[in-house]
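Components:
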Amino acid sequence: MERRDFLQKPILAGAVIAAATLPYGFSRLLAPRGETGAAARRRNVLRPPGALKDANAFTAACIGCGVCGEVCPPRCIQFHARDGGGAVNTPVIVAAEKACTLCGKCMEACPTEALTPTPRDRIDMGVAEIERTACYPWVDRGICGACVSICPLGAKAISFKLWNQYRPIIRSGCIGCGLCVEVCPHPSKPIWIAKRQLGAKGYRHG
Amino acid sequence: MHMPSHRPFVLRRHLNKARWFTLSLVFALLVALPFVHLYQTYAAAHAYDLLSPSERQIYDVMEALTGPFTDDPAADLDAIKGNTWSATFWSLKVSDPLAPLGQMAAGLSVPSLSFNWPFVITALIPVILTIVFGRFFCGWICPATLIYELNSNLAAWLRWAGINVGNRHLDRRIKYAVLGAGLIGSMVTGSVLVAGIYPPAIIGREIYYAVALGGFGAGAVFFLATLLFDLLVARRGFCRTICPGGALYALLGRYRLLRIQRTVEDCNDCAKCNAVCEFGLDPLRDGFGQECNNCTACMAICPTDALTFNLRLADLAAQGPGHLGKRYRRQHEPIIDEAA
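Structure:
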């Protein structure tokens, strides 16, 4: 009787602890491997403004309370589900669906240092890149300028090429809010936000 | 002398109703706040004409509810935000003590992350309240408790209907192991893992996901699993034996100041307190311990008002059978006879 108890208790405790880790295990197992289908559409997954630069530091600092999403006026902040793996429940912005308007409420609301209040021109969510082989004015398929007119930072972030009034060019002031991605009328979204750390210079192809 | 017929109105007998009111209020807030947020986004966009009929319904209801209090919903309704994991009340941020603890554990694996005092301080109010009132969060605030207690009622109905529900005895110390495992797991994976197995963190988040983002996440599945665990394995088994936050609150509230204690002179050994205690404690034999969450259910059911609050740093030692009970009277009958 005593030996049975002695055996049962650790086994039960072990089973309970193993069961407690199941959600994490499932989220890791079910996470898509590569960029396919929905993941490819979510290529432009950004962190909210003021997020810690180091991705691991952000994942560790974020407690997943969801308050940043709950104060977001355009409701652009979504949360990683199983696609996030270990970063499940951390906030993301899918610029192509709904982009950040840089109101700064999420930075004020975040209880942790994951989102730190940052002045607008010091925010770094990434930097826009334009695919010039697809963008309508760049391939002479008409005039557009939607990205230039929506940009909240104006000419220091994106402007037209001098000798062609409708071909957009990304400038050094771009902070990667993604409004240009949201507004781009081209179905393949030839404008997207790249990570600045990856050596992006602000624009592609010269 | 004890006179049950002339018992005065005792407020503490009604605290359990106040507790149910608080639990319902917290849960209602957690359901309402996502709708408040939706309303704020509609109002901020100045786009009533573009809303779908269902969105208009939300807008109209929320406008009717909040209209008397604010002219500028987009700004003013930011006053209360968040959930029981972390919330903002008029820019005062309050977090669950497990949140900074889990964050510290997760941050250990990231050298660039510095220790963040402002966040730790958001847990100060709950920590102080827990040191004074013990696990009161579990009994009075936790949104999961409301559902778990309803689940207990369901179990009682099932038992009444002749269906066997689980009533296993599990070791209460398992939850300290779960807390430790959760923190070690957070440290190893570098993300706040404990938030995924902690119902008060899950519920607020999942309600927000369901209302504002269009669907429940994995946490809802986990929470349903805990409900089934409570139903099929052990009554309130999750809170009592597994919950990592409950473990932390129990540790913080071990030397709590406010305790329920039994007045042995008024006790008649009816054992209703033991039957009603959701946490399976033993008020009848003065067995409260660090698990007691001061929920006052035992006070409410006690027919002789023998259970009261007291300010002490430790429980009373076992006081023996109640003086109004048969056992005590049988033991002391010869003495009473001599006196008579």
